[in-house]
Amino acid sequence: MRTAPTILHLDMDAFFASAEQASKPSLRGKAVIVGGLGPRGVVSTCSYEARVFGVHSAMPMAQARRLAPNAAYLVPRFGLYRQISEQVMGLLRELSPLVEPLSLDEAFVDLEAGETAWDEASALLAARKLRDDIRAVTGLTGSVGLAACKMLAKIASEQAKPDGLVLIEPGTERALLAPMSVRILPGVGPATGDHLRRGGISTVGEIAEAGEDELVRLLGKAHGLALYAMALARDERPVVAERDTKSVSVEDTYDVDIHDRVRVRMEVQRLADRCVQRLRGAHLSGRTIVLKVRRYDFSTLTRSETLRGPTDDPAVVREAAARLLEAVDTTGGVRLLGVGVTGLADYTQEDLFAQARAAAAGVEEGASGERVEEAQVGGGAGAGAGAVDVVESAGGEPAERVWWAGHDVRHVEFGHGWVQGSGLGRVTVRFETPGSGPGRVKTFRVDDPLLESAEPLPLVEPLPAGPAAPGEG
Ligand SMILES: [Mg+2]
Cofactor comment in the record (predicted)? Predict the structure, then answer.
């Protein structure tokens, strides 16, 4: 194990809820709960103000409403969160090529591998600068832990919350862990925790005292040995970068379903380009192009096409993704699109267009709602989450118009705002932006022609220098 605290763990503070508070000035300092508002919805994230009432993530939404009836209840805006996540992960990749994301807002970074830090002083310097940069670029705060291994870096960032930095000095790990609950160790869930407690072990120190043989007797060889090592703060797990994964993919969840086929095609092209950028960034190429489509009803399917050789050519990936899309019915709307490349290699073949033409298509049908947490979160359509009415879309087909609580709207006269609530044929909108003061509330008919869905505004005004990325905006 290394002797310097050069493994960094970053965890953004109450990420979704903080992004909502930064977007909506009237919610700053208030209890904010983000999650699925339908009958089976659960809390994704809640603000620190909501935690005071006992609300926590993964709690059923109905229970949260009983505990904090006056909180603001919002449907997640994954498109916005993903944009912020990409900014944060970009800052982490400036520190090291070894960045291991655990979720949209959490990652390990090996500072030593990036030659960013080699001892306590340089690690602290890098961590302080990272926290400043995150705040400047995203407007949000993240907590950072530094330690000589992953397990302790994660414990440190938990101790640092909110908006803090904690370094665990190598050599002090065992003393720090000893009084903590066994549940703090990776791999100890409620069942293992109960099992250990029945064996007379409830703290990490008691695992160390019990000894290796007793742990093996209680939990079996593999789990027992692993847990005993963790209790002695022996954690040799390396930080595993994205390039070591078996596929490279990008996907976007849209805050408002896309109905327009032309727009769907454009989005797929944009995703293909982003995917290739990421592929090239990792010095990889791949043989199989994968398109993922989640439709308005949460049915999710993937289509794939395998080339004769690996490619990192944007034109080839774009063409393949476009071909795959042609076989997918998107009438009714699309809420998520993704493009990925698998079958990775670290070289490319020269005759890219020939292989594209010779491509053999493969098809597989994905299970509906494969990413359960996202499916649950948005899944409350028409069940109190938003009012629904039917309007004619540009193509002459009826399209559902759903006013999701918390989502962005624009009114011809009053400008940008967000849906505060809806029902009984009315929608209430608060007109405010990240840079404004708390805004005023107005109520409209749900079919008001002057009111339309809008894209989220950035939390921090981008610097005026440099042209905007094509297709973004
Ligand atoms: Mg977090």
Answer: Binds 2 magnesium ions per subunit.
Are 332 and 411 in a shared domain? no
Active-site annotation, residues = 106
Distance 374 CA to ligand 1 centre (A): 16
Confirm whether residue 11 is marked as ligand binding.
Answer: yes
Our count of domains for the chain comes to 4
* CA 47 – CA 27 distance, rounded (Å): 10
Each residue's pLDDT tens digit, 85-125: 999 999 999 999 899 888 889 999 999 999 999 999 999 99
User: Ligand 1 centre from 378 Cα, in Å?
Assistant: 20
In this prediction the pTM is: 0.68
Per residue in 355-377, pLDDT tens? Answer: 333 332 222 222 222 222 222 22
| Spacing, Cα 5 to ligand 1 middle (Å) | 21
Contact 19, 27 (CB under 8 A): no
With beta carbons less than 8 A apart as the criterion, state whether 307 and 320 touch. Answer: yes
Helices (DSSP H) in 60-115: which residue ranges?
A: 61-67, 78-95
User: Is 35 in the same domain as 151?
Assistant: yes
pLDDT per position as a tens digit, 162-173: 999 999 999 999
- Residue 472: inside a domain: no
